[in-house]
Amino acid sequence: MKVLKNILMILGVFFVVSTLIFAVQETTVEPDAQKDVVKNDVDKNVSEGYKISAIDIPEDLNFAGEIVPQEDPEIMERVDREFLVNTYWQSNALLLMKRANKYFPIIEPILAKNGIPDDFKYLAVAESGLTNVVSPAGATGFWQIMKGTGREYGLEVNDNVDERYHLEKSTEVACKYLNKWKKRYGNWTLTAAAYNAGPGAINKYLGIQKVDNYYDLLLGQETGRYVFRIMAIKEILSNPEKYGFDIQKDDMYSAVPTFKVEIDEPITSFTDFAQQYEINYKILKRHNPWLREPHLNNSSRKKYTIEIPNKGYYRESK
């Protein structure tokens, strides 16, 4: 009996040792197998045409018809940077294309009516990504208009109503501002830079550095990149296939048709107001972001125009 017990013990030890040896062999082989899998995946990607390439810069690059001095290598490095950053930030570029399809038809005729080159719609893209953002300095809306500038050019800006969020009205103000500074600087490129940095800063830099154009100015990083970024965005959004984007018309965002309702009295509850038109407060705000509170004071009985979406474009509220 004792002999049998010893034999069983020896067999048990042998089994445990064998198992451990097998496990060690497994772990030493596994990394190599994983490397082979990764290598095969990489080879597959490369074989299927996946590449990250340098960008061919167009030879006739311009902003608002004003030619870029492409013979200057320092200028071309700055151009190249913006093309690379904006081409290979693919998710952002796709969002900009989708939004542009929705909002450019609103912006373009206002620019044309005011004699502003069509390229300036891309300035709005560079400023805000075509969203109603607020900068740390307080610049607001698609055109990033400061409170004082908005009021100076006739927008209503207060806690109850802020027309910097009104796309049509803010675009009109942007046009007035751009035309004013185009008269001062004589070209659209410096005008765009002044829109970003402020004319005071641009005037200061022009005086100190004794030059008369954007491309010869040494500016801070944001404004120094600004016009080049606009040009890159313009080129990529105008020719998406050229830069590797496969986006179809059905992929784009589109505007929901609306009708207008005029009011000239206080509204105590925009929730109740919205329900009269079979929509909810969220949808009302989506189409009228300039209404900043869930009510309208309007003690002066000013006339406002509110956009209401046509029926059938949103799911019914419950």
TrEMBL record:
- Any idea where the Transglycosylase SLT domain is? 111-210
The protein's matches in InterPro entries, at most eight in alphabetical order, are given as: Lysozyme-like_dom_sf, Transglycosylase_SLT_dom_1
Q: Which CDD domains match?
A: MltD-like
Gene3D superfamilies in UniProt: 1.10.530.10
Sorted alphabetically, which SUPFAM superfamilies does this protein's record hold? Lysozyme-like (SSF53955)
Q: Which Pfam families match?
A: SLT
Which superkingdom is the protein from? Bacteria
Q: Which family does it belong to?
A: Belongs to the transglycosylase Slt family.
User: Know the name of this protein?
Assistant: Lytic transglycosylase domain-containing protein
Organism annotation: Costertonia aggregata
